[in-house]
Amino acid sequence: MTIILDAMGSDDRPDPEVQGAVIAANELNEEIVLVGNKNELESLLKNVPGDKSRVHIAHAPEALDMSDHIVEARAKKQNSMKIGMELVKEGRGDAFVTAGNTGMAMYFAKKTFGDIEGVIRPCLCGVFPVRNGKAVVLDIGANAECRPEFLVQFSIMGKIYAQTMLKIAAPRVGLLSNGEEEGKGNNLVRETFPLLENVEQINFVGNVEGKELFGGDVDVVVTDGFTGNVVLKSTEAVAKLIVDILKEELMSSFRTKMGGLLAKPAFGKLRSMLDPSEVGAAPLLGIDALVFVGHGRSDTKAIVSAIREAKQAVDNHLLEELRIAITESLS
Amino acid sequence: MTIILDAMGSDDRPDPEVQGAVIAANELNEEIVLVGNKNELESLLKNVPGDKSRVHIAHAPEALDMSDHIVEARAKKQNSMKIGMELVKEGRGDAFVTAGNTGMAMYFAKKTFGDIEGVIRPCLCGVFPVRNGKAVVLDIGANAECRPEFLVQFSIMGKIYAQTMLKIAAPRVGLLSNGEEEGKGNNLVRETFPLLENVEQINFVGNVEGKELFGGDVDVVVTDGFTGNVVLKSTEAVAKLIVDILKEELMSSFRTKMGGLLAKPAFGKLRSMLDPSEVGAAPLLGIDALVFVGHGRSDTKAIVSAIREAKQAVDNHLLEELRIAITESLS
Prior knowledge:
The structure is a homodimer of 331-residue chains. With 331 residues, chain A is an alpha/beta fold. Helix content of chain A is 50%, strand content 17%. The first copy, chain A, contains 14 helices and eleven strands. Chain A has helices at 15-28, 38-46, 70-75, 80-89, 102-113, 148-165, 187-197, 210-215, 225-250, 254-262, 264-274, 276-279, 300-315, 318-330; strands at 2-6, 31-36, 55-59, 95-98, 123-130, 133-138, 172-176, 203-208, 220-222, 282-285, 291-293. An eleven-stranded mixed beta sheet of chain A has the order 3-2-1-4-11-10-5-6-9-7-8, sandwiched between helices. In chain A, a hairpin with a 5-residue loop joins strand 10 (282-285) and strand 11. In chain A, helix 1 crosses helix 13 (300-315), helix 4 (80-89) packs parallel to helix 5 (102-113) and helix 6 packs antiparallel against helix 14 (318-330). The longest helix of chain A is centred in the C-terminal third of the chain and has 26 residues, at 225-250. At the A-B interface, helix 8, helix 9, helix 10 and helix 11 of A face helix 8, helix 9, helix 10 and helix 11 of B.
């Protein structure tokens, strides 16, 4: 297996990518191709300790910036994201990983691979830490405006992701709303509800709220990309605020500092639950290839975790499972 | 001043209301009228310690249930919410407080008081705990579907609330979106953005995300009632999950228990920040009266805090300020 890694995606590029590639190649025993400026990557790679026999370099003279829009991105015809995806398209890699701009990743992925046959809109799929595990939320940002039939497909793709990647046999699928009762919701939710009730492929549990999502009462939560993105960022911000305040208050006196030191083992579960580098990367579901987008703030650990996720997707035939499920839903 | 309190609103009604009325009447030195079954309230009141000379009872033989919809609610012609609002309408009270069903409160408030002249849609206004203070978010649930002009009025009403109640001189007003740049957002956000730029009455700071909201970089956040409600409930659920896990982990060993005890003073700020009973109640802004809706799970402390907020609104002429601002916005 070969994973193609955009070396120029993260905010601190290409260091986290170069180091992450070496660690992941050895941990996973797979080939990794770093895509970026050949000379720069070669000299950086030299200074990274460890066995580098499975880490390769593909040259891409240009790199996208986080602030690039479509116009600037298209002008960079040799950017690392585009060239990396083309390697996958040519069969020289099994999956593509980037910590770059999500919008640009979706743009180049659609251009390079197109959609899985039958998919109306690909979406960005998020994995949220919840009580006793994880839940899949989609769309978290690709489609700010959605029609009910988009959400129906998100529910099927989310179910396949939960089954294949999180190993949940019969994922419970909920529709995010402002109230649990049928009839609650905005127009989109009220039109989508009866459609989801009739999707035989999924185990639809009805409308859900934050309580059910974070309480672990649902495995897949379907929503439009605007709401999903706002929920993702708001809940991340609240978690950060709580942790920051707790840290500050623990440092505020000798007594609380000592208490904090003693209580340290208790913070481990919370830390790993909230650590963005443990979550891995968000797949672009519905694209006819395996494309994973990590956080722009990815560090080495986050890059390794994104590569691990991509490998798992290849191992578990995520793309094939998605193709089968979409075909089945149309028949 | 007289505050009319629905005695039959909270999940544990009427105990929190009866106890809260006595505490608030003495703390605030104002008159409070409990609305509910006279005999029941009289006998309960007898058993509450303290001076009860400022607590009065108005009889309402019926009570709404949390599960009541419009049809059931309308059939209860003598319900405590309706009768309490009518007392305010008749000039026998200055503000109305309930911990009952928000949808029903909005329904009866519109019927009893109507809207402030010029208001297109009243909304439910939430006060969120954020870094170094509080932020106003509206709409948090009254209007699942919104048009841009609704959001323009929410921005003006939110500004007045922040000025009058939170004493913020020039509140920064943001539009909740899935990205900070202009042009980000769903159709509603993209249509609302240029309108907000042209509202002279407000200090519009552009699109905001969870980071700005919870980071304390904005004082008023405008959104549709679907998104606002989902954000409110999701962030509450995440905060609860974090606190629950922290508590469980602190109790998991002798060492962490000791650490938790030593560190206890450090948890105070977090506890008071996240305590729903400290937040008070959500005002129905745009209704031509002062109506506050507390959480259904309100305890005595939460009822006191809701009454305190209602008093503050009367003292600070919130309703008059709203009327002036709406009139000004139309001229």
